[in-house]
Amino acid sequence: MNELNKLYKAMLLSWGALVKDDGRIVFTVSGSNAEIDIRIDEQDMYLPTSEVLEGNCVAKVFFHPACENITSKETEVFKIIRKMTSMKILDVFRKYPIVLIGVAGGPEKKAWKQETLDLLEPLKKIKRSVRDELSELFKQMKVEIDDNGLDNRFMHLKVTKGGGRSQRSGEKVYYKTRPTFPFYDEVIKRLVRSEGQSDNQLVEINNFSVSRAALKVAAHLFQSIIPAVLNPNDYEFESVHPVAARLVSYLGCYTDIAEQLNRIQNIFRADFDKAGVYPIDVDWAEHMEELPDIYRQVPVLDYNSHNTYDENTNTSGSQSDLSGLMSVSSSNTQQQPQQNVTILQQPNQMQQQQQQLIPVQQSNMGFDTTPPVMEMGDRYVRSEIDMAGNRVIHHAVTMHGVPVIYLCTRQGNKLQRSEIQGMQQQQMLPNMMPNMMGVQPNMMGMPGMMGMPGMMPMMGMQPNMMGMYQMSAPVTSGGGNAVQYGGSDANAATF
User: Fold this and answer.
1) Is the pLDDT of residue 463 over 60?
2) Segments making up each domain of the chain, as ranges
3) pLDDT tens-digit readout, 278-287
4) Contact, 176 vs 163, CB < 8 A?
5) Residues 251, 252, 256, CA angle at the centre, nearest 5°?
6) 363 contact partners, CB below 8 Å, separation of at least 6
7) Distance (Å, rounded) from C-alpha 20 to C-alpha 63?
8) CA separation for the pair 458, 64 (Å, rounded)
9) Whole-model pTM?
10) DSSP letters of 432-478?
11) Does residue 319 surpass a pLDDT of 50?
12) What 3-state class would DSSP assign to 127?
């Protein structure tokens, strides 16, 4: 496993995910043995190891957020990262009150500093009813905005593009992330509005009623455990390198919050250990500065480099159902009509001289036939729908005249790029050349110019010794930072 995948795996494990033996990534919640599938467009997410990428990539999405293009909005994979990190912080925070209240009710230790005493003092002699209210109040906190529009989010890390020059280093800022705490802000707002009322007075907070006494304790716990709630602007994290700028900024801010939670655990280590609550692992964060050097160890991959969903569309699913929360659906439903689209009735039989191709007249039958972003030098020719394989095949040609196939999912996500060589190339030419050169085929299905002596060598189409074609590595999203495959750059990427 290369260094990039080691970093990815450490991140995922620290957020509560598991990486199965086959590379598939699932999410877990403490206290439960359930493994929740992480899915994008109904496709399971995998760690992009060489073993997985070199195998069957159909119906698979890969975790490679470091390849995000600097111009992209948040990608589907980044949305999953938001959910996992927010769930981790929220899950740990919810366990603090019962431990701290238990410590406050015990004997005072001489080694405690004044700051520790100030934390525990309001928690002493709390009534059981207030403690139960706190538990129910904190259950109202969510990872995302509710379907009804109520903002019960425990934490939201707001990512902003740009920002001029860093006030700390003077370097250009590509992204900055500032923490916000919507639920805490609502608690403070309700306390201010109910000023002067008795502690047993019920106060409504986002359609949930709780005593003012419980709200006061909740505010104290927030401020003591996460000081960032008091001055969130002071905890803004900047990224000053264009590689993985959004990811670096976001995770830098996340790490700051996680370390604040860990700080409290370190003060009362024995008590938290007894309760089975352990620090959030952030050791991997020190390796984030290595991303500019290692992010190319995995090629650019779909759902990571550019966003395809409509940011105005709610894609989170039901928050009461974790399987829905950990699934994202892109809303890239706009399909551009293609003039050269056919349905491939006999898939995966490239050895045949001819295939039955039925033109698509009006509908693409639910397939996204939009040509993918192609590698530099590749020119699009036509597309075919592989009904049996539930895929779309896009034909192209390189600047040297070598036929190329881009294999895509039904939804239009690239799976693989193949350069056709030797015998397979000769079999494809009858269908490729009329579209490539604008020449009408003759009665034998061959373009008239194909009979010209020396035409094949001129176009660089010499078959190899075995008459076989070679398959390149799984295709990427292309673009300016795309890793090129084939030719002298075939080994440019290592996995």
Assistant:
1) no
2) 3-94+141-181+226-328, 341-489
3) 999 999 999 9
4) yes
5) 110
6) none
7) 14
8) 40
9) 0.67
10) HHHHHH---B-TTSSBGGGGSTTHHHHTT----TT---EE-SPP---
11) no
12) coil
